[in-house]
Amino acid sequence: MSDEEVASIRKVVKLTLIRIGIRCDLEGFKYLCKAIEFVILDETLAHKLCKNLYPKLAKEFNAKASSIERSMRHAIENTFDEKSFAELNKMFQCSIYTISDKPTVGELIQLVAQYYLLNLYKEN
């Protein structure tokens, strides 16, 4: 994949997370961005988060996999507490989450990756 294509992925992923309401000043934001990028480039990573994706992120950021997972979970919890995930419903044009639901780290990574892979960002 070319540098231009990777840059495009990064831009769309960041804008999507910001649109959802993930605060970009949180450590988990950058981890989510990279995790989603990895999944877009290799969808098999999404099927074994603890064995494949988190160790890959840990290596990339020179951090513990558990710390990375905790930071991503914190970013999701923070967004849920402040805004809920109603924007995800708008982006996918269906009811995925109610006001009292929040996605897991794996669900959010998969949803944003599929949002990109299905080119839904071009419609919104």
Task: Please tell me about this protein's structure.
The protein is mostly helical and 124 residues long. The protein has one domain: Arc Repressor Mutant, subunit A (Orthogonal Bundle). It is 68% helix and 0% strand. It is built from six helices and no strands. The longest helix is centred in the first third of the chain and has 18 residues. It is globular, with a radius of gyration of 14 Å.
Q: What's the helix-strand series?
A: HHHHHH
Helix content: 55-70%
Task: Provide the low-confidence segments as ranges.
Answer: none
From the spread of the alpha carbons, the general shape counts as globular
Alpha-beta content class: mainly alpha
User: Main β-sheet, in a few words?
Assistant: none
**Count of separate DSSP helical elements:** 6
| Overall strand count | 0
Number of domains: 1
Share of β-strand residues: under 5%
Computed over alpha carbons, the radius of gyration is 14 Å
How far do the termini sit from each other? 25 Å
CATH architecture: Orthogonal Bundle
CATH class: Mainly Alpha
Residue-averaged pLDDT: 91
CATH superfamily: Winged helix-like DNA-binding domain superfamily/Winged helix DNA-binding domain
CATH topology term: Arc Repressor Mutant, subunit A
Topology:
Blueprint: H1 3-20, H2 27-41, H3 49-61, H4 65-82, H5 86-92, H6 105-117
Tell me briefly what this model is:
The chain has 124 residues and is mostly helical. It has helices spanning 3-20, 27-41, 49-61, 65-82, 86-92, 105-117. Helix 2 packs across helix 4, helix 2 packs across helix 6 (105-117) and helix 3 (49-61) packs across helix 4.
